[in-house]
Fold this protein.
Amino acid sequence: MPELPEVETVANGVDARVRGERIAAAWFSDKPEPMKTNPAVMEQVLTGAVITRVHRVGKTVVMDLERRGTRGKEAKAKAGPTARAKSKTKAGPSASPQDDKSCGVSAQFLVHLGMTGRLLVNDGDVPRAKHTHAVLSLASGRELRFVDPRRFGRLSVQEGYEGPGREPLTIGPEEFAALFRGRRTPMKSALLNQKLLHGVGNIYADEALFRAGVRPRRQAARVTRAELERLRTGLVKVLRLAIALGGSSVSDYVDADGVRGFFQVEHRVYQRTGEACRECGEPIRRVVIAGRSSHYCGRCQT
DNA sequence: AGGTTGACCTGGACGC
DNA sequence: TGCGTCCAGGTCAACC
């Protein structure tokens, strides 16, 4: 369920609560679906590690970890004045980000929330919810818990994760237009393709198409350059507004505190089938494209 | 190769 | 109250 704004809200909420904490223990359920990395391996990597930062890449929550021991010492030694001086010459083979932030990132814990995944920070004595699949016990006594009834979420450990596609919030007009050149698929499907743009899902695809005045079924290759630019700016606008409002919460979504977002009151077309278009009064239509329901205004979108 | 479909899961809403 | 049906924000393997 969660798309870019919801994942960003969750990542920020978790970051504020667990940054700097040490993971004392890690537990995983025996359900195999969520575990992309072997649970024994995840437990080994996570136990004893310090969480240095939690952020979002595409629809994935990424937890940067610093592991102590010999590797930690190495990283510390490297982070002297020489490393700082070098950092001006951006690039470097592994293209690591800002100097002091990147030092000591020895692994990343990746959480994809799927449709119904939630990340909660609780005191250790709060009873665990049904469908809890992972628990990281923190040195402070609190726990970071992953709860996911439908088990479409995925947990893994890796390094240097960059996501499958481009970031919709930062991509420029030229590169954005290039993504869709020659594509015969409906524009709606192209927007949902994570290998092109990552982070956009069904809600924000529909909302951006409405703001650009483009029908979801239009072939991507036939969307004009001007429309593509309206689509890009509409997408940025709608994603930023949704982040500011804490995301949408149609049913399952909650942030790290268990609080719902408020963007759903801003929806212009998504799940408003039959209701009047806020621009022209025409009833909003619903069609199915590539198995996903799509909502649009037949008068405002062409 | 690019595009489309169904399968993966549980649970909530709705109709009878 | 209970049962059946439909629907759900995501991905991925398997097909055309």
The two ends of chain A are 28 Å apart (CA to CA).
